[in-house]
Every structure is written in C-alpha cells, then in structure tokens.
Design goal:
5-stranded parallel β-sheet; nitrate assimilation; Nitrite reductase (NADH) large subunit; 806 residues; 27 helices; alpha/beta; FAD
Amino acid sequence: MTQKEKLVLVGNGMAGVNAVEHLLKLTPDKYEVTIFGTEPHPNYNRILLSYVLSGDSKVEDIVIHPYEWYVNNKITLYTNQTVTEIDTTAQTVSSDKGVTVSYDKLILATGSNPFMIPLPGADKEGVMAYRTIRDCEIMIESAKKYKKAIVIGGGLLGLEAARGFLNLGMKVDVVHIVDTIMERQLDRTASKMLQAALEEQGINFLLEKQSAEIIGDKRVTGLKFKDGTVAEADLIVMAVGIRPNVALAKNAGLDCNPGIIVNDYLQTSVPNVYAVGECAMHRGIAYGLVAPLYEQGAVLAKHLAGVETGPYEGSVLYTKLKVSGVDVFSGGKFGDEEGTKAIRIHDEFTGVYKKVVIKDNKIIGAVLFGDTADGTRLMQMIREETDVSGMAKTSILTDSEGGGGAASGVADMKDDAIICGCNGVTKGTICSAIKEQGLTSVEEVKNCTTASRSCGGCKPLVSDLLAFTLGSSYDKNAVKESICSCTDHTRDEVVEAIREKGLSHVREVMSVLNWKNEEGCSKCRPALNYYLGMVSPETYKDDSTSRFVNERMHANIQKDGTYSVVPRIYGGVTNPTELKRIAEVAEQFNVPTVKFTGGQRLDLLGVKKEDLTAMWEALDMPSGYAYGKALRTVKTCVGETFCRFGTGDSMAVGIELEKRFERLNTPAKVKLAVSGCPRNCAESGIKDLGVVSVDGGWELYAGGNGGVKVRVGDLLTTVKTEQEIIEYTEAYLQYYRETGKYGERTSEWVHRLGIEKIRDVVQNEEERKQLCARMDQALSVTKDPWKQAIESKKIQRDLYEVVELN
C-alpha cells in the first residue's frame, strides 16, 4: 500500500478548509491531512457572524464543517491551537500547545487580522474589533449592560455590526471618514439608497468624521472627533479594514509584501509551501471576498491532486449579498471613467437601482440595488467579455420577472459559474445534487449544497436551476415560505395562530410558536407587531420597540441626524392661513429647507430631534405619516371645480378618502389618487388605489405602481356615487390588510392573489359589509401620534430629549 503524503493546513477557516474539501473529492486517498485552528470551533461561515450577532442564527447554525466531517474524512483537527513556528528545512510545524507535526505539503490559510486604529484611548475597556465568534459573544454580553454603541467604519462589516446592535436593543452610530458608505462596493447613488434604508431601520450615520480620541477612564464613554465634537458610547467597535496575517510566514522566511506572495498555482517562495485566502498576495492583490478565495482553492486543490488545471489568473471582484435585509450587488469596474458609458435605471418608488458600465462594447461592471436577480448573469458577461454591440441596450438590464433576466439565463451558464458567492457553490454542483439526490425545493438544495444558506440572495437562481433541471415537475409555488429564518411558519400560519390561540404580544407569538431565535429579528418582529394589531385592533397595544426608527419617531431621519416633518395636507388642498402657519413655524425653528413633495405636500427638512414635539404643537396639524407603513397621500387634480374637462369633484373625494384612512396601518405604504376625468392628471392608474371620474360614475383601479417595475392598476370596479367609492375602498384596503404579507406593496399583492379573486371579494355585498365593519373597528382606535407625543412628557423624555455628554 502506497504511503500517504502528509498535508498540513494552518488555519481552519473558510478558504483553507474549502480547498481541502475539494482536494478530498478529487483524490480522497492521496493525503493524510492535519488541520490547526486558533479558534475553539470547527470551520464556520464568517460571513454569517452578523446573523449570530443580530440573533437570527446561533453559532451551531453557521458551522460549515461539523466535527463529524473531520472524523469521517480521517482529518486530524487541532482546535484552540496556534501554529507558532514553521521549520521549512525539516518541514515541520509547531503549535503553542507543544504539538509538532511534519509535512510533505503545507498550506498557509492564516487569514487576516482586523486593523485597529491607533487612537489615544484605544486600549480602554469596551474598544474591540469584530472578526470572530468570541467577538460576537462579547458584543452580545455587552448589550445586556450597555445601551449605546459606535461602529467606526462604514463598510460591509461595520454595517452588519451596527444592524446587530440594533437587534440587541442598543442605539448605534456608524462613523465613516468619507461621505458615502460601502464606497468600495457601491457607486454614490446605491450608497445613498442603502444609507436611507439603514437609517429607516434605526442606524445613525456620522459621515466625514475623523476620529481623534477615545475618551473615558477605565472604560470608554465616548469618541471625540477632530472637529471637536463628541459622540457618547459604552462600546466602540472598529471595522475599518483587515491586514493579511503574515507573522508566521515572515518568521519562516517566506516572501511577503504585504501578504504572502504566491504564483498562479498558489505556491510561495519556499518549496512545498502554499498560501490561500486573505493571507495570500497574488499579482499584487490580497482578496477579502469569499468567491475569489474559493476560486484560488479550486486551483490549489487540482494542483495538489495532480489534476490538470489552468492557472489562477486573478478574480473579477463582485459582491452579492443582503446588507441588513437589503439586496445589493456590485461587480467589476462600476465607476464612471473615461471611455465608458452607463445604462441606468433608478426607481425611487420601489427602491430599485441598476447600473451597467460598458467600454468598447463590453460590460466591465455593474451595480444593482434592491433587485439583484440579474447579478450572476451580468457577472458571466463581464468574465466572458461578451460583445453587447448587437444587443438592445435596454435589454441588458431586464426585469427578472419579465422573462429576460436570471430565470432565462441559467441554461446558458457554464457549470463552473458560481451561483452562491457566499459559499462558492457552482451551477454544476447544484444541478448534480438535484439529479443525484432527488432534490425538489430550494430548501433541500440549501441543506444539501449550502447554496442560499448565507445571505439568501441567490435563492431565485437556485429556483431557476431547479426548474431548468426538473422541467415541468418543479412547482416553485408549492414550496413553503416562512416569514423569516427565525421560524418555519408562514405568514398565514402565524396569523391563524394569533387568531385561534388569542395571542396578544410579540414575545408570546414567538414563544408559543417555538421561534428558533427567541429575540426575533428585524424582519419578523415588525411583521408580528403588524399582524397582532391587524387581528385585534381594539385590544392590541402597539410594540414600538418592534418598529423601525422612523415609525418610532414619527419623522423621517435624514443623513445628518436631523428629521423631516410632513404635516397632513388633505388631497393636496390647502389655504392661505395654513400656508402662513407652516411658513411661520419654519421660520420659528430655523428650518433650512422647505420642499414640495411628489404627493402634493410640504416637507420641512433639517429639523433637530429636540424641536420635533414643539414644532408639531406649533403647526397644530396632524401627522402626514410620511414615515409609516400606512396611507401616505391622496393625490388629486382640480377636477370639475376648476378644470373645463373635469367631470367629477376629485378634490372633495380625495379629501374625504384621506380623512377617512389617514392613520390606517397597512402591510406597506399606500398611496391613492383621484382624477376628475379620464385625462388622469393625478396619475390614478399607477397608484395602490386610483379613482377616475368617467361619464356616469367612477372607475377604481387596484395595485398600480410607478418606476422601473411599472404596473398599471387593474380595473377593480365601477361605481356611481362618492359614497360607494368610500365603501369599496374600505373593503379593498381591509382585504389587503388581512391577506397581504408585511412589507408587500399592493402591486405585488394583486399580482399574487389575482385581480379576479380580489374583485370577487369586494363586489360580494355580504363580504364587503363584513370587511367595512372590520375597517370601522380598526379606524375607531387610531390616534394622531404627534398629538400623543405633545401631550405625553414620558414620550418626550424617552424619544425626543437630547442627553448632553458631560
């Protein structure tokens, strides 16, 4: 029997173990493998640390290779041991626990170390990095004692840490030295959209701030900036970048600059020693993203197995993931440089932004925000330098639901195309697993291959591969979709349990339904809060802690930490007295900007938090709910009152609708419009509900939406009187409230249920009466949140008073 060669891997992380896993599949009997890991854990997915921090996952959930995998593959694993010496002459490695092992081949996968800014006071208690499971544990324990955190660094890691702190109940500031976040992965437009989305969740950004000193005695109490201002904090996390961990390699005499220098087969300057992952420097680049590290590992594994392989020639960088629930993608060179042209789609209504950069008739880069389904297809075109000169430029960025995007592109992808960038899973791996293991659902593919296990951004592509492989036998609609990763229960199951079991608060729902994460997450907690209020409007007490910051504060937070105030202006109709009052209040509180909104209202921008309640009192106007999942606006034209074409009193109808539903909580924001004639000047055809005056009555259109995913509303019904407009709108909105998923716009809801189903319900007289009665019940308990804050010293103290740092 041929004696096995000895392979030692230093580093039990994602890059190194992935290479070993590939190697064992290629040649399971060639090597006797030993692995050293500094952490006391088996190999885990570092990308998912943010899920552990936020409470969406437990440590065991993010383990990629459990201890059983090492045993089954006859791998000797030394955890909680750090290799401190390499003798390249004797070909041995030694650990801090006194273990010495010889090798024939050595792989260094020592990863990287977090960079800690050498600020005065950086050694104080409460200042830390965010890199390991232990770091997560410290942060979780700290959140039980302290309430305010600062994250230095507006990159991906910093944003994930900040989101985790919010879930732990802490207030958090993100400090960043430039004026845009994730500037290496996103262009300015996408960055600002991401910032707005995260601000809505509760993260406060302090941009263009240079840290000067960490203040406090033994423990940190705040961060002082070079401009002299101070932000208070009980905990400071630095997430400002990483440095290749090369101390071991340098001491062994390997060439490093600054990472361990490797060639196209990952060989170092010393024979039989290889390097892979964040510690490696290839052609002047040290990669910090997972996909390039897996590409390196695949080449290294084939080289060590003696299998013919092409060289590793570098990676086209791309990122496709969820940042705090928001889909983002970037790949290649997406900046606007000389000689490039860009195709852009920007939909402010649905929060979708797409940009493709073209040079010499080839796509060289792309940025996608909100809808990333086209990411893998675009990356394939970037890698293959596809000539797009013969393509209609608008077809390059297609709606993935329209048949031209990812769903229609998987058949053309090569088997080595990476579908899941987080876990390095290729199309070939997924298709083989579907065929060989008899997989029939995205969930089964995830459990078998780990594809879609991390951020979940590749789920649509996995579904497309199931359809491609299984053909007509695949039914994607039969797959059970839970409301989030904290539970296996669907939206309908949760609502049914609330009704049948009489559940009355968020934690009770999670307890009774055996939530995997007992604290819930930012996706399920707001949803549960809505469903409870929808089922029992008269008895349920709203849980403000389960709402995003804008809804808690009843004002939209701006990028500089100020707020915007949008009073209700019914139907967009006002009068001189009201306008004077708004102007006087704007002067009184030194409001820097006053802007007309697209919904025919006035937005007072730049208001200090401590001025909000006093300003609301001075305005003496109700909240316009510009921040909420509720009725936002009712847009109107002047109608028959003034217009020579008008056939209906659109202003009067719009005002009546807005006064009727102004404080109604809905699954997502709702916008209405009333047009006084079929010329449709109020854009009623692309609103959640649009009303159009026609000869002899009014037409009601349902499920409209503007922007890239333009959806013209479907005709719901035609009525004769203005009272019928109110009645049918009540039934329609209540049915949406009762059957819509939290966060689902009416355009998606109508598409999912079908206009025929919705029409049958609201046109049925008995069902309509019941829906209207339940709407009466829901509206009977609503109160103006601005007035409540004005009248409550406790609310003012808890939310709006500014605590000065001594």
